[in-house]
TrEMBL record:
This is Hydroxypyruvate reductase. Residues 335-436 form the MOFRL domain. It comes from the Archaea. It comes from Halogeometricum limi. GO terms for molecular function: glycerate kinase activity. The lineage of its organism: Archaea, Methanobacteriati, Methanobacteriota, Stenosarchaea group, Halobacteria.
């Protein structure tokens, strides 16, 4: 479990409340807490959420998978299952060490050679799985990148270049993964197909709006409803210049020359069950409880906010202003929370990420006494080393600051602007990921407090 700390100014109770909500939201989805709440052993029964698996039916119990929360999930599984685990490989950006499960490195958000080697160990472990093998598949956000298995004819450098182009394009996660699933062997149900006829139990921490199992971590244990044609359409829709080998593979697949990823009804999923153990709403519910304990009315606006970060910020600011002026949807003092996955279409050469850009845009729009904060639950916003930021009406106040903010937004350069104003939230890698978390805190007006 990572030590969570914040490096941001908290001059008012509203700032303190915003940070407390974010801190408790992340704590609620840390793997140790999530797995221990959902997974237990009762005699020979392995209980996972609302299902029970009879361990006496199996000769081997294996743990495979990974992602940003992979190491923490592995720790928790070792604590619960101990020597019942016969082997395992879990890949994470910052792997620790385990007694029963090997921890191996992989990079995020762009895949690495280390990740390819780590993924090969998973393939080797599953190569002789049979009907009496129980596989616990750790499926958490970030696994799409940290566990790369390039398909035939696609080199790692080709996969890296394609991933980088997709990340900068503004494509949403479903579109990005439609491409990645058709360039890799474990994604898009590939892990389930490799493990068959073993019994596979997916332990899922969702970082995807709507918890689509085919999209989380590119769906290694779920049917893939996308096609080679879909992947090609993503490249064309965003005008992406990708390596020739990538386009060639997708075109061959679209012509029927290559096998498709396994679809719903495929026999590969006959003995597969996936359990979503935590998601963005889990985190937001904890944040709401924190706000209420601090004396605020609180509302989860949505756990499914998506689209351009700078535009989503305007809507959130409008809600905060409405609360301050009319008392709708809540009367101040109040807190509004949201989550989801916003995107940034990169046009400039600056530093930032969706949450930093969200906060910069919010700072330009705020016309009332409110605090707005946003962070990526994994502790790293976009390609930066900060989690997010916290702003108020004074952040971009004045002609000079407004001009600098506008320029920073145009150049996708939110980080320096917010850093210079002591607005950054720093946590370091949190060891989990359920995507973006946002909070707007509106205090009662001076007249209301009299």
């Amino acid at each position: 479990m990572h030590d969570l700390s914040f490096d941001a100014e908290t001059p008012t109770s509203a700032h303190e409340t915003a940070l407390a909500c974010l801190l408790d939201a992340v704590a609620a989805v840390l793997p140790d807490r999530v797995v221990r709440d959902a997974v237990s052993v009762d005699g020979d029964g392995l209980v996972v959420a609302d299902a029970t698996y009879d361990l006496s039916d199996f000769d081997r119990l294996l743990v495979v998978g990974g992602g940003k929360a992979g190491d923490g999930v592995a720790d928790a599984l070792e604590a619960v299952l101990g020597d019942r685990i016969d082997g395992g490989v879990v890949v994470a950006p910052e792997p620790g060490r385990g007694d029963r499960i090997r921890r191996l490195p992989g990079a995020h958000p762009v895949p690495s050679a280390e990740g390819v080697e780590s993924a090969e160990r998973i393939v080797e472990l599953l190569s002789d799985a049979d009907e009496r093998t129980l596989v616990l598949a750790v499926v958490t956000g970030g696994a799409s990148a940290v566990i790369p298995t390039p398909a035939d004819g696609v080199s790692l450098s080709d996969l890296q270049a394609t991933t980088d182009a997709l990340l900068k394009s503004g494509a949403h996660i479903g579109e990005l993964n439609a491409v990645r699933k058709h360039l890799s062997t474990l994604k898009g149900g590939g892990l389930a197909r490799l493990a068959a006829p073993a019994t596979v139990v997916g332990l899922v921490l969702s970082d995807v709006v709507g918890n689509d199992l085919g999209t989380i971590a590119s769906g290694p244990t779920a049917p893939d409803e996308t096609t080679y044609d879909d992947a090609l359409s993503v490249l064309d829709r965003y005008g992406l210049d990708v390596p020739e080998s990538v386009r060639t593979r997708l075109e061959r697949g679209a012509r029927g020359e290559l096998d498709e990823t396994p679809k719903p009804g495929d026999a590969a999923f006959d003995r597969v069950t996936n359990h979503v153990l935590a998601d963005g709403h889990t985190a937001l519910s904890a944040a709401r409880e924190t706000a209420e304990q601090r004396g605020y009315d609180a509302l989860v606006l949505s756990s499914r906010v998506r689209g351009e970060a700078r535009e989503a910020a305007k809507t959130h600011v409008a809600v905060a202003e409405e609360m301050a002026v009319t008392g709708d949807p809540l009367s101040a003092p109040a807190v509004v929370l949201s989550g989801g996955e916003c995107t940034v279409t990169v046009r400039g050469e600056g530093e930032g990420g969706p949450n930093l850009e969200f906060c910069l845009s919010a700072a330009r729009e705020l016309g009332t006494d409110a605090v707005v904060a946003a962070m990526d639950s994994d502790g790293e916003d976009g390609g930066t080393t900060v989690a997010g930021a916290m702003v108020d009406a004074s952040t971009a106040e004045g002609i000079t600051a407004e001009r600098e903010a506008a320029t920073a937004l145009a150049e996708n350069d939110a980080l320096p602007f917010l850093r210079n104003r002591d607005c950054l939230i720093r946590t370091g890698p949190t060891g989990t990921n359920v995507n973006d978390l946002r909070v707007a805190v509106v205090e009662a007006s001076a007249d209301d407090r009299v």
